[in-house]
Amino acid sequence: MLMDFLMLLGGLALIVKGGDFFVAASIRLAEFLRMPRVVIGSTLVSLATTTPELVVSIMAGLRGEAGLAVGNAVGSCICNIGLILGVTAAIKHVDVHFRTLRGPLIAMFASGVLLLLMTLNLVLARWQGALLLLGGLGYFAWDFWRHWKNRRPEVVAEAAAIKTEKAAARWSWVETKAGTGVQFVFGAAVVIAGSRLLVEGAVATASQMGVPPIVIGLTVVAVGTSLPELVTAVTSSRKAVSDLAVGNVLGANIANLTLIVGTAAIIQSVGMDRLTQVFNFPAMLAIMGLLGWMLLTDRRLTRREGALLLTVYAGYLAVLLGLTMIAAR
Known about the structure:
Blueprint: H1 2-32, H2 37-49, H3 51-62, H4 66-91, E1 94-95, H5 98-118, E2 123-124, H6 126-149, H7 153-167, H8 172-175, H9 177-209, H10 213-225, H11 227-238, H12 242-267, E3 270-271, H13 274-298, E4 300-301, H14 303-328
Antiparallel strand pairs: 1-4, 2-3
Helix pairs in contact: 1-2, 1-9, 2-6, 2-12, 3-4, 3-9, 3-12, 4-10, 4-11, 4-12, 4-13, 4-14, 5-12, 5-13, 6-12, 9-10, 11-12, 13-14
């Protein structure tokens, strides 16, 4: 039991550090390509920060634990809004441009509703996973294209200036294209190794505790794989680029519900229990709706609203734990 738990913690630690390397390298690669910040934030950072969820889901699917993969994706969506944006807004209010985020908000909520409808029979088939995967790829291609098409000369100049600044940095080799490529590959390798440890430790711990793997995925694994989003969101808020923080979370949630769940279902059809269907999916849609209402009413996330998101997330975890204990009797 202790070794299994240590494997779980070790996997989380590797994912956090590897994810940090991977995200930093991904952003720097985009900057070297002179991509505007809005393109980096809305698409590339979102995809980079969901890499731990993707690798964990693939590992879980290959081990025949597709329920853990879905629990990780859905739990990460709830965690991203309740914990990540809650902490970010509680530290400093987050100003947003609702028009910019309207498309991602609609896409996120639509993906959640579609997943709920697909799993009414408690099964997510491979063809449904393929549909989700194609939908996610289509969305991110469209999102990248529309931002790239609408880029302005000043933001391209900003990206070029960043490139020059990076080339003259003290850590010159790490900041070069070659150094960035090495960091990218190394970060990805660490994430993969950590994900393997995490999945094996999570499955073994769940078995020892008599808890369904999907519950471990909704809680411990979800929080651990969402830490890259937390680092990105807090850093973005402190640097006064709040739209990147919210946009990253929305993009990461869309990736979770389409690319991550879709990939897991293609590897193996996903079966789930009724608790997930009647509680976790509605909880996910409810917190998405709460976020949408907050952004629509005053175009910002205040510290009070951040505290409310944290309270809602804590309440969700408490109810989930209570329902799991009742079901285990």
